[in-house]
What does this fold into?
Amino acid sequence: MARELARLGASVTVLARDAVALEQVLADLDRTHGAKHDLIAVDMLDTAGLQSKVHAHIAATGPCHILVNNTGGPPPGLAHTAPIAAYEQAFRLHLLAYQALVTEVVPGMKAQGRGRIINVISTSVKAPLHNLGVSNTIRGAVAQWAKTLANELGPAGITVNNVLPGATATERLAAIIRNKAAGAGSEEAVTEEMLREIPLRRFARPEEIAYAVAFLAGPSGAYINGINLPVDGGRTPSL
It folds into this structure.
């Protein structure tokens, strides 16, 4: 997503807790798309620290026009056996962190009369996914929060939308396949079973999620507001 937005001309600030990884991404962006990008190294579980660092960054560099919220999902497990702490952490890592970011970027967006807020969440907001109880719960909360923001911020020229990725060919998906195969069967068998659930019979490429984000962030998505956009090859069983 950072690469695609930079390719389209955006000055990108990447944010995560791993400063070393961020430096590598920043070097790639600067090398490929010019040295106009930046980073913020902060743990999104640290709500106050997150808000403070983003506030200082905006004060130093100017308003943010596009905010992409994209946080790793909670660990798998059943909803009814999940400890309270798992729900508390997911709530802080997703909803509270996103609210902290919105609190900092929206004033500048309002002053400019435009803005885009895009949340990368999950197809589970349309149909809950098996063995992802905490994730299903918090993703649904984020989707409702986003729809509420879309209604509130639309009059200010700010759109709020959600991108819902399906199974995407990343290291996380490879780890999921390995874990499932360790329980029973081979990685090939697990992969085939997962592919049978997808009408296009393939996993998404990471850049295909980025294309959806870029579409909503750009002029072509200017009149799209408050929607959930599945990018899942048709896997989601509902409209």
In short: The first helix runs from residue 2 to 7. The helical segments are 2-7, 19-33, 47-61, 84-112, 133-153, 171-183, 187-196, 206-217. The two ends are 26 Å apart (CA to CA).
